[in-house]
Amino acid sequence: MADTPLAGGYASHKIKKSDIANDVHFTGQAVGNARNSEHIVDLSGTATLAFDKESGTSTLGASFNNWYDIQVADNGAIEFSNYTNKNNLLKLDAAPDSDGVITDTGAKMDVGYYAPKPDTGVPTEATGLVQYTEAASGIKMDIAFGTK
Question: For the chain: N or C, fewer Cβ within 10 A?
Answer without folding.
Answer: N
